[in-house]
Amino acid sequence: MAVAPYARTARPTPGGTLLIARSGRRRLAVSAAAVLAVTLGAGALTGPAAVAAPAKTVTLGSYDPAEIAETSPAQVPTGYVDLDRTPRVDFGFHLNNPDAKVTIHLANNQTRGWYRWTQDGFDPSEADGKDLSGGYPFTLAWEGVLHLLHVDGDLVPYSAQNGTYTWTMTAEPRSGVGPTLTKSGTFTVTRKPRPHDFNDNSSFDLLARDAQGRLRMSAAYREAESPDSRSTGYGWDVYDRLEATGDISGNHHADFVTRDRSGVLWLYRSNGGRTRDYLDARSRVGGGWQVYRHLAGGSDFSGDARPDLVAADTSGVLWHYRSTGALDTVFAPRKRIGGGWQIYNQITAVGNVAGAAPGDLVARDKDGVLWLYLGKGDGTFTTRERLGGGFGRYSELVGGGDYDGDGRNDLLAVEPATKTVYVFKGTDLRHAPFDLTRKATPLFKGDAFEAGLSYDLTG
């Protein structure tokens, strides 16, 4: 008997479901040659007098359409899942009924971000090379993404935040007749904090303050702008400096510091989504910071695996502030690095960009030449090395993170003339740590530099 094959497509639905849609229906023909028997649940002998429990036999191809049951233990994540090391999480359920509609729903218990996947039946003709002895497989390979429903009806992916997730699997007969099988469980996603990750999803975020005093965040996702970009509200014009520092307070989330116009430094800690703007209330670091012309944070200069801060004062002396990882005393007493830094109009911490473990610095002089200072791991730096010219066109240089997800730290640059944020990709090469062929990014694309919206970006 010739039967038209299933047509299998993947499409998003308005309700947020990634649906594996099939046109037509096909059931495995039942014949002496086509019947495949599965023996399940045989009891174990406990002694000479024990009698094995009756075996449950499921015959694949001759199933009850109204009955859905698991035929073997499910493959699901438990405990902690490090998406840095394991970028794909597998879910697998084996059922006795191929004519089932299976839905797996994931939700972050704190942020309520979600992902939903549906497989509408299993076509046995697609089982070439698969072992069906354990039942019909319904499998999902989750790649660490969540979904938002765009206004045009499309599902837009973005990186999943850290935290505890609850998954729920429901399997119901496609006929609509019969009970629904439901299972659920939890697991925790965890990744290392990144200096420019303010929404706790391990992707690069860029903060900027606009002319109205709003703090804006533009989030990256696989070299595209994430739908999680947002505004944290007004009132940020009371500060004359914002600097991304990474996790300097020990809460496993990225932080940033701000300086008000009286010279007081304030700490803002990310909280992983516990509040809508992802930020805890500010805490006072201390006064007297008006003596500094430049602040640069987000790199580990002291070799203790915590990001630090360097500050250049108005006389050109560079100072090192080692972070303590404690909220009550964020920085250890400052240490003098050296003088002569007044020749630079911008200093940026870029993390490890040249292959050695300590964090590095780049500095731009008045002629637009960019210079590299390699960190020694003790709060000091090597003799400078010229990287290249032409950087005077940029109003802000931003470093300290991996923008494109390739494992190398990159340098971002804002060009007001083209209203664009560019990226110079990291190479990990000792004498050429950045590819000087710039590439445009979608960060703040469309509204970043509109008339009247002059942005002051974090470094």
Biggest sheet, spatial arrangement of strands = 1-2-9-8-13-14-6
Number of strands: 35
Please give the share of residues in helix. Answer: under 10%
Overall pLDDT level = 81
Structure description:
Residues 1-58 and 448-456 have low confidence and may be disordered. Helices cover 0% and strands 43% of the residues. The protein starts with 6 loop residues before the first strand and ends with a strand. The protein has a 7-stranded mixed sheet, with no helix packed on it. It is mainly β and 459 residues long.
Entry keywords:
elongated, mainly beta, 459 residues, 5-stranded antiparallel sheet, 7-stranded mixed sheet
Concise description?
With 459 residues, the chain is an all-beta fold. It is built from no helices and 35 strands.
Write the layout of secondary structure elements.
Blueprint: E1 7-12, E2 17-23, E3 36-40, E4 56-60, E5 70-75, E6 80-82, E7 89-95, E8 100-108, E9 114-120, E10 136-142, E11 145-149, E12 155-159, E13 163-173, E14 181-190, E15 205-209, E16 215-221, E17 224-225, E18 230-231, E19 239-246, E20 255-260, E21 265-269, E22 283-286, E23 292-299, E24 308-313, E25 318-321, E26 335-338, E27 344-351, E28 360-365, E29 370-373, E30 385-388, E31 396-401, E32 410-415, E33 420-424, E34 439-440, E35 456-457
Parallel strand pairs: 2-9, 6-14
Antiparallel strand pairs: 1-2, 3-4, 5-7, 7-10, 8-9, 8-13, 11-12, 13-14, 15-16, 15-35, 16-17, 16-18, 19-20, 20-21, 21-22, 23-24, 24-25, 25-26, 27-28, 28-29, 29-30, 31-32, 32-33, 33-34
